[in-house]
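User: Hey, quick favor. My workstation is busy. Could you predict this chain's structure for me?
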Amino acid sequence: GKKLDETYKLACTFKAETDRAVLIIDHASGEELWIPLSQVEEMHRDSAREGEIVMTAWIAKKKGLI
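Assistant: No problem, here it is.
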């Protein structure tokens, strides 16, 4: 299985979703980011579309989050 240090958790707003990716707004920076669903481990969101996303560390690095 994957080690915990291979994922990255981000507080965000969920703005849109396709069958291949999810568009989030990073709470820390206000930046909009498309994250491929293939790189998403978990998504937790409430009815207001606020929550957190757990993605692979690889995509977090590629998107400049780490």
